[in-house]
């Protein structure tokens, strides 16, 4: 059924002595991440749905559509992958008990690739949308329609799904990864198809990060310039500008912290043509110090994938839920950075009309 995939007989079994050395291996992690991910993204979807159908938010619908697509993607990813991981932990980390045919490993790998790249691409699309709104307001007003936004979102989902299914055609391979509780792209075995597939995933991920960071920096710069020019003396508008700056900086920090370790580690593994196979049984010719270094690398791989998964949990909080809460705590810091006066901020309520007014100012 799944071409280019390791069967269960080819997958290494978890070595208990090695697994015990990884003190971070615990079912608590996937359970906690699943619950928090489901709650956060569900709340985000409810908020987006409510905001999308308000008449005063008509001009923000493209932005809300992308946020909703991001929350839906993250929620679906958690619902499809977390139960599998928890089941493997319950089975004493013996993947073969849960997936004797090997098909589940292939499905899990497809999900990891799809719901890993989609949020990165959607974040990039959102960053581009904000940059156009600030730096090309006329073009944005004339061309950024909800129909175009829906087409972009659907194209991202479809293209990433096609890419994730390439191992079926023999390009790339999904294999069991340390500590035997998840499957992902194989970076070793000196096979050209594996190298091409893994390299493409890494390049796409890094490119998405660079696009997101570059566009957000450009948007922040545009907002700061407008703020310094004192386009409006309305304190509410200045407050919203500071809020937007904080949100964009938070997005960049979360994306870089969550995804950089995994993408860097994958680049290293591709370059050295190595994989996580040695994590189960270190080579006998290695010294104790070298074996310790290998074990450290294995644990770092597990930490890196958990950080990438953490992005699915943090996305809704960064984009929606903590936006106003965080502003009230650190508005003074943001004031020092942007040189925007927020005097009297605490007495100014947050209103939809103020947000709409700012939108009209910049578009």
From TrEMBL:
The chain crosses the membrane at residues 27-50, 62-86, 106-128, 148-171, 191-224, 245-266. InterPro entries: GPCR_Rhodpsn, GPCR_Rhodpsn_7TM, Prostanoid_rcpt, Prostglndn_DP_rcpt, Prostglndn_EP3_rcpt. One of its GO terms (cellular component) is plasma membrane. It is found in: Cell membrane. Keywords: Cell membrane, Disulfide bond, G-protein coupled receptor, Glycoprotein, Membrane, Phosphoprotein, Receptor, Transducer, Transmembrane, Transmembrane helix. It comes from the Eukaryota. Residues 40-319 form the G-protein coupled receptors family 1 profile domain. One of its GO terms (molecular function) is thromboxane receptor activity. It is a multi-pass membrane protein. Gene3D superfamilies: Rhodopsin 7-helix transmembrane proteins. GO terms for biological process: adenylate cyclase-activating G protein-coupled receptor signaling pathway; inflammatory response; intestine smooth muscle contraction; negative regulation of gastric acid secretion; phospholipase C-activating G protein-coupled receptor signaling pathway; positive regulation of cytosolic calcium ion concentration. Its main location: membrane. Interacts (via C-terminus) with MKLN1. This is Prostaglandin E2 receptor EP3 subtype. It comes from Scyliorhinus torazame (Cloudy catshark).
């Amino acid at each position: 059924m799944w071409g280019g995939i390791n069967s269960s007989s080819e997958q290494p079994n978890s070595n208990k002595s090695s697994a015990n050395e990884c003190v971070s291996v615990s079912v608590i992690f996937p359970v906690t991440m699943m619950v928090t991910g489901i709650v956060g993204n569900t709340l985000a979807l409810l908020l987006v749905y409510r905001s999308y159908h308000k008449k005063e938010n008509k001009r923000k619908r493209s932005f809300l559509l992308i946020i909703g697509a991001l929350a839906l993607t993250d929620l679906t990813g958690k619902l499809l992958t977390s139960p599998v991981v928890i089941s493997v932990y319950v089975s004493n980390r013996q993947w073969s008990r849960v997936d004797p045919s090997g098909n589940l490993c292939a499905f899990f790998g497809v999900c990891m690739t799809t719901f890993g790249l989609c949020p990165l691409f959607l974040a990039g699309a959102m960053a581009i949308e904000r940059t156009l709104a600030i730096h090309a307001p006329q073009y944005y007003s004339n061309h950024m329609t909800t129909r175009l936004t829906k087409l972009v979102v659907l194209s991202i989902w479809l293209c990433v799904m096609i890419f994730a299914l390439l191992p079926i055609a023999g390009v790339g391979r999904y294999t069991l990864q340390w500590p035997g509780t998840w499957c992902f792209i194989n970076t070793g075995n000196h096979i050209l198809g594996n190298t091409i597939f893994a390299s493409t995933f890494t390049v796409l991920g890094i490119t998405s990060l660079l696009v997101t960071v570059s566009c957000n920096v450009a948007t922040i710069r545009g907002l700061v310039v407008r703020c310094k020019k004192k386009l409006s003396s309305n304190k509410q508008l200045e407050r919203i500008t500071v809020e937007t700056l904080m949100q964009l900086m938070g997005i960049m920090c979360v994306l870089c912290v969550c995804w950089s370790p995994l993408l860097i580690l994958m680049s290293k593994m591709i370059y050295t043509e190595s994989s996580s196979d040695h994590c189960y049984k270190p080579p006998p010719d290695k010294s104790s110090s070298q074996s310790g270094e290998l074990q450290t690398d294995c644990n770092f791989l597990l930490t890196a994938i958990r950080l990438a998964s953490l992005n699915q949990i943090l996305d809704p909080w960064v984009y929606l839920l903590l936006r106003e809460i965080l502003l009230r705590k650190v508005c003074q810091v943001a004031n020092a950075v942007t040189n925007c006066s927020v005097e009297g901020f605490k007495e100014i309520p947050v209103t939809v009309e103020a947000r709409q007014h700012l939108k009209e100012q910049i578009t």
